[in-house]
Amino acid sequence: MTRPDQATVRNAVWLLGLYVLSVTVALVLSALLISITGGPWRGVLNALLDGAIRKPGRWGDTLAEATPLLIVSLGAIVSARAGLVNIGQEGQLAVGAATATYVATHLSGPLAIAGAVLAGFVGGALWAGIAALLKYWRKVPEVITTLLLVFIASQGTGYLLTRTFLLLDDDPNKPNRVQTSAQLDESTRIGYIRIFGNEFPWSVVAAVVLAIAVSVVLHRTTWGFRLTVLGRNARTAQRIGVPVVIAGATALALSGAFAGLAGAVMLTAGTANYRFTPGFANNVGWEGLLVALVARNRPLACIPIAFVFAALRTGSGFLAATGVERSIVDVVRSLLVLALLVPPAVAVMRQRRVTPPPAAAAADEPVVSVVVA
Amino acid sequence: MPAPAVRLSSITKRYGPVTACADVDLELVPGEIHGVLGENGAGKSTLMKILIGLVQPDEGTIAVAGNETVIHDPQTAADLGVGMVHQHLSLVESLTVWENVLLGDHRRFDRRAARDQVAATAEHYGLGIDPDSQVSDLSAGLRQRVELIKCLRRDPRILILDEPTSVLTPAESEQLFATLRDVVAREQRAVALVSHKLAEVLHATDTVTIMRQGRVVERARTSGATPSSLARAMVGREVSLRTSAAALGATDELGDAATSPVAARSFDDRPEVLRIDSARLVRGGVTVLDNLSIRVRAGEIVGVAGVEGNGQRELGDVLSSLIALDDGSVTVDGTVVRTGRAGAMARAGVAIIPEDRHDSGCVLTMSIADNLLLDRIDSVARGGLISRSEQRRVALELMREFEVQGAGPDSLFGSLSGGNQQRVVLAREMSSKPKVLVAAQPTRGLDVGAIEYMSSRLRAAAESGIAVLLVSTELEEILDLSDRIIVLTRGKVMGELQRSEATSELLGLLLGGIAAGTDPTGGAHDPS
Amino acid sequence: MIASALGAVGDILGADAMYNSAMRFAIVLAFAAIGEWVAERSGTLNISLEAMMIGGAYTASITWSSTDNVPLALLAGMFAGLLVSLVQAHLSHQLAIDQFVVGLTLNIFVLGLALFLDSRWEAVTQVVQPTRIPGLVDIPLVGEAFFGQPWPMYLVVPLVPLAWWLMFRTRWGLELRSVGDSPQAADVSGIHVNRRRRQAIMFAGLTSGLGGGVLVLGQISIAGYESGHVGLKGIIAIAAVIFGGWTLRGTILGCLLFGYFFALQQTLPVLGYRMNAQLAATLPYLVALVFTAVFAARTRQPRALAQPFVRGLA
């Protein structure tokens, strides 16, 4: 192992400095925005920290909140690896949660929970599968179709909650049973771990294991290898025998499946009191996607980032006392995302000015393309 | 001697550790065609990119008509009267001829006037073309006319041509040089002709500057230069091998070895390993492969000669499982292979060195080791899990055997030089124990040493019993290596010759679209 | 059954309100889609169109409620769209960050920002009253649709030929089309590829910001900006460009078609037809999905669409 030379160290320090600078700018801008609109920025910061980790029992909640974000982001990485832009996780998650609800409320017994989770997986896969079908059969860019399907999914699952033979709670004794599903019974609920005065569902552990598994599959298996070839050079992939359509469709469906799985996990871990309701996805799909973007498609990096994003979610619940709307968190989060996207891009640009690419060794992410040959 | 139109003084350009141009001086004089000769990678195209404003020099100055200037971008260059005819890149296919000619201009935008002007410029230089046709419908030769018109219409005092003949038939090249002599003599422009083909430079230029490894190694009046002295300066050693002469595009001018073609061998008793029968392919209404039949026997090298854009790319794509034939079949070792099915050709034993390795021969952003085992990653995996140490071991072995230098197995493929990239591709394809090897433009962009290496590898492959299909636009290369030669024109077999019957003159006629056995006075390649 | 279905079709085809409403939706979509058409022809699939519309809508409504000045409000909307486009353009065509990543993040950012600002400074607006052109407005069925719109809607009338003229009759347009199809060729011809692409995105920012403004002032809003107002109309506008096969004519046709289904969803209950609200709400999106899929495959997209350009990366 050779010691890193001076230039490498200098570049690393420079990049780190850039990260610190841009994150600071994002946070200062957020604070300014709160102040300008007449809110206490210190109060907001304290409330966020209280809600996310400081108050008793809070970090357990944050871990639970991070789980679906992490699972969604892992799926986003799978499709990005194949060079596809799936940005419809919000819809895929809603559909997965709906199918999981149907199974969970119609089954009972020890296998019911497995059935529900599987149903979520399949539901998300099918929903993303529509986009895959339209891409490879009709050449419609998946960027557009996955987005349009988000809206159709959120309204469509709302419809399912208006009919008792679908998802609407059919308990006639319930006085106000407007648009919610029946509550899951005990057998279909995920168990909780209690530790240091915090509690979180077992799915937290499962999600971390899943992240490790995805990392190994993508980086160490022949399947992951072929998927990577496909994402970085589709024509080379076709030549060496990666069936472009089948592999691409599988990756897209799988990324939807992960989003659906996240929906099933939210349902069975009691995010919405073990019921499916309108607006169930609650932006988890969008935010999970952002986690993957910030992690620059590295599965293990998603773990801490999902936690930070979850902290913003749980922290925002404590904002009421400050009089500042929760939507400030959306602003802070997306400013942070932008702040984290810029430094690596600036570094690449700087690198390029010093050494021109002999060929095109620049991007470490696949060059995303919607062009279908 | 007239004052120089442009003078480049002490130009140096470094890319990290590599010095592309080192202390280069160059003067272009009005009324002269100045050859800039050098192997691929000698620094001549970097120098021209500096002159046209696409690259900024680290050191040195540029003076145009005696005034020192800084050329920031192609626009500045154009304002200073520097124009360049690019090899491939500067036309937009979806636009019409006149729109393309206007591109990058900043005079008043007047469609009718522009159209008329394009027609007038074309007529003035005898370059017939319809201003309203869409560029995607034009042949490579006609596209180059558009490039030339685009450049000349801006009335440049300095005209740079970058490897202009690579897309032309011999007859078209001759016509181009006639136009250039006219431009120089009548209009007193300064012309730089950038080329790696010695014969072409000898034939068409007044003065010549030779570059090697970023430096100017010789300057001479062309009339006083001899082929062997130029070749020595260019390569840096005596050139006698036949292959080197071919690589310099000067088989006739150089060396005794060049006059004795390979001994004719018969392959009639060997099995037909590759059979393409009546292949037909239609793309966007154009028939790009037209009833094409090719047979290659074991141990034989069959050369497919043709000017660029006559179906070679599509032929390569079919043999890479990238596109399906509309009609006809491909048979490998007696088994019909389904075209267009992912990996089918590779599984049947067809190895390929693709025309554009970046397009379908590699993954730039994966490691060298990954690229070496692209299609055989299973061989270093157990139960689907890749063994990195095993992969590394195999990769190192291949890199040693095929002399891949410049980086370790874990470095990105894209960080290698062109020649080493090509070796990686060759190593991968040869180590898959193929029955057929398709080499499409295998030496394009390589220096003489790398070309020699590649040629010897191809010969060795054939000797080991592999059926080799060599697709090339370089006639010299075809003549050097092939046992049998097929001439491809507009996707059709225009003629088929044994090596012993082939001469560059005959091939030149066939390339121009005159079928073997017909009257060669019928006129070459109708421009309309 | 059949008779009642035919009756429904007859009712819909015979309703003035239906044509009027469809036209309004189509016009709002068209503002954004025209800008997106220009951006896509220059090589950017600009999904932050949504953010530009949202920014335009909120800014226009807050300007209206504090100044009562409609032209000023529309200008403010355009300005907001331009700001979003500057961020998109510089991040994706200066720093070469993936354009979808930038677009998606901007969509979330601007939606959150507008929501937050709206919670602090709520905008109350009124719809600009229709300008009724005497005589013509009385033409049966379509009179209202064509000649009885609030005046900002009519801005689309000069915008369509303007966009066409810019793209096909100016040097700027020629250069935009060349960078969308073959950026390398454009670059060696002396065109600043990324500068042209940024300008195209800015054009999209201006028109879609205006579209957002027209949406809140001219169409449906009586209480001011609400977070659901834009509701993926930017994305539908992108679908219209793809549906239209990257031609201006096709894009406008797409806007009319998708606008019709927005109107249908809104008008059916008014005409007394009962339909599940959720299902009705999906209608325009479903139609956009289906029609885009049916027509997308046969057209030719700009060859460098969504591919970043960095000199030297051929």
Q: How would you summarize this macromolecular structure in one to three sentences?
A:
The complex is a heterotrimer of chains A (373), B (528) and C (314). With 373 residues, chain A is mostly helical. Chain A contains 13 helices and two strands, in the order H-H-H-H-H-H-E-E-H-H-H-H-H-H-H.
Give a description of the structure.
With 373 residues, chain A is an all-alpha fold. Helix content of chain A is 66%, strand content 2%. Chain A is built from 13 helices and two strands. A two-stranded antiparallel ribbon of chain A has the order 1-2. The relative contact order of chain A is 0.20. Chain B is an alpha/beta fold. Helices cover 32% and strands 26% of the residues of chain B. Chain B has 18 helices and 22 strands. In chain B, strands 6-7-8-3-9-10 form a six-stranded mixed sheet, with helices on both faces. In chain B, a hairpin with a 2-residue loop joins strand 4 (59-64) and strand 5 (67-69). In chain B, helix 4 (111-124) crosses helix 5 (140-153). Chain B is globular, with a radius of gyration of 24 Å. Chain B starts with 5 loop residues before the first strand and ends in a 17-residue tail after the last helix. Mean pLDDT of chain B is 86; it is low at 255-261 and 516-528. Chain C is mainly α and 314 residues long. Helices cover 70% and strands 0% of the residues of chain C. In chain C, helix 3 runs parallel beside helix 5 (99-120).
List the helices and strands and how they pair.
The complex is a heterotrimer of chains A (373), B (528) and C (314).
Chain A: H1 6-36, H2 41-54, H3 58-81, H4 89-106, H5 112-138, H6 142-160, E1 192-195, E2 198-201, H7 203-220, H8 222-232, H9 234-240, H10 244-268, H11 284-294, H12 302-316, H13 328-354
Antiparallel strand pairs in A: 1-2
Helix pairs in contact in A: 1-13, 2-3, 2-12, 3-7, 3-10, 3-11, 3-12, 4-5, 4-6, 4-10, 4-11, 5-6, 5-10, 7-8, 8-9, 11-12
Chain B: E1 6-15, E2 18-28, E3 32-38, H1 44-52, E4 59-64, E5 67-69, H2 74-79, E6 82-85, H3 97-102, H4 111-124, H5 140-153, E7 158-162, H6 170-187, E8 190-195, H7 198-204, E9 207-212, E10 215-221, H8 227-235, H9 242-247, E11 272-283, E12 286-297, E13 301-305, H10 312-319, E14 327-332, E15 335-337, H11 344-348, E16 350-353, H12 357-360, H13 368-372, E17 381-382, E18 385-386, H14 388-401, H15 418-430, E19 436-440, H16 448-463, E20 467-472, H17 475-481, E21 484-489, E22 492-498, H18 504-511
Parallel strand pairs in B: 3-8, 3-9, 6-7, 7-8, 13-20, 13-21, 16-19, 19-20
Antiparallel strand pairs in B: 1-2, 1-4, 4-5, 9-10, 11-12, 11-14, 14-15, 17-18, 21-22
Helix pairs in contact in B: 4-5
Chain C: H1 2-13, H2 16-41, H3 49-67, H4 70-93, H5 99-120, H6 143-147, H7 156-169, H8 171-181, H9 183-188, H10 193-219, H11 233-243, H12 248-270, H13 277-296
Helix pairs in contact in C: 2-7, 2-10, 2-11, 2-12, 3-4, 3-5, 3-10, 3-11, 4-5, 4-10, 7-8, 8-10, 11-12, 11-13, 12-13
